Amino acid sequence: MKRLLKADFYHLRKSRLTLIALILAVAFPVLIVLLYAGLDALSGSGETQLFSANTVIGSAFSLTNNIGLILPVFAGIIVCLDCSNGTLRNKVIAGNRRSAIYLSHLLISMLFTVVVIAVYALVTVALALLFFPFYWNTALSLGLEILYFILYGLMSFVFIATVSTMFALIFRSTAPTIILTIVFTLVLFMVNSILMIVDYDSFKYVVYFIPTFGENIFNLNSLSMLSIIHGGEETSRALIFAEGMLSYVFFGTLHTLIGLFFFKKRDLK
Amino acid sequence: MDVLTTCDLCKVYKGQYAVKHVSMHIEKGDIYGFVGENGAGKTTLIRLVTGLAAPTSGSYAICGVSNDSPALYEVRRHTGAIVEAATMSRSMTALENMKLQSYITGVSRTDEELIALIRRVGLNYDEIAKRKVGKFSLGMRQRLGIAMVLVSGADFIILDEPMNGLDPQGFIEVRETILKLHSEGVTFLISSHILSELEKICTKIGVISHGVLLEEIRMEDLHRNARRRIIIDAENAEAAAAALQADGSFPEIAMENGRVAVYGDADLNRVMWVLTSQGIRIRSVNTLEETIEDHYIRLLGRGNIA
Lengths: 269, 306
Hints:
The complex is a heterodimer. Chain A is an all-alpha fold.
């Protein structure tokens, strides 16, 4: 496992895709903040700003926006590179267990996601706070509020990385991996939104285990939403974060087990 | 000691046998030529023994370790294979690919050692140091593939169609690399349909057709049992064949491309005397030894009849 992690990390380090993803992680927030600032200026509302830092940061961590759509694709392509180069075959021939190959890819894919998102988050938060005011909704400090925000965003991206790794190692081809990852993310998001709108009370606990749930809470940035979930009680973000994490771990493990099952079963070309 | 043995190995795809009850034996120090037409099952068998595919039934053992033993993972570390084509990252240099392979195999190598391996397979490292592998010729990639296989210190190497797509110079280079490594104690399993190339390097061949292993034979036995034949190009080939047949001294006479072929240890003087005494004019006479190709064609013919 250790040797595979070294190999995959070396592959990742040498891949141009890593550099491209890091450039995008810096370019996207710059463009988005400039866009928001431009819209603000055009609205001509004078002293009152149209957008807050909350809005900018909230929209930045959506799985269905800009980096949210691109990053899982990159994570999938990085895993697929191993298949298209044939280095995946070299690993099997060299006596590496398929489960170790899968888990190594998963960890590297997660690491890639964390690094890119960390850069993306830093630039986004810095620029958003520089250009827009931040409104406190809770008693948390600014740093802690933003930290939860970023951590939740990070969890959702890492979760999607487990999904794209699953598709990449089941199909071992870039096109189906990209298409299925995007479709999966959009469907998940739609199901989540529909359940919340249609009959929230009935699906309350089901919604808890839909990975985009937490993201919605933070994006909506609504205290009332938090109180609905917890029967009108004031709830800390730490609890929501912990519960959300449970959901991500559950679904992440489920997808990893599915991926492992098919990857171990199928013959390699 | 057998480096690779297979026992009744089968692989079925969609109800059809790709490999059917194959039992083969490769001994230490062999260069085993695996011969068969396209789609005969050569690559499928190689994919089975390299762990890329799982057998439907039967078993195999590498260096005595069975395919269902967890110890096989360790044994595989000392086995290298190039299946269909050498696989490497084309956006990396040769040294970077070698490093990647050293991480994959878990064998720690210094840059100097890796460069020495690149040189060992006949690549001029100084020339290719900064070049991405994507810009290598097919022959260079094949040789780099062999160097990558050597990173783990493999003493058993499986090469699937290593001559495919190579120019004559590439043929020679890969052949020389194989012979050099063989002299250093490496055992090879080489599948190919270029029989003339295999004949130059193999110590043993296995002939497979339609998934069935028809024969395994050592090259010295093949040469010892090789059938000699006299080829006669006569003005009237039919009359010449009839005259030789009528003489009764020759056990097997056949027509080959409009010429008469006399098989077995036929006496050339007797052949000439029979034909000239019948007034048959002869254009040319040649004595030919059976090649691996002739043997293969004869065997396949027999296989088809069976």
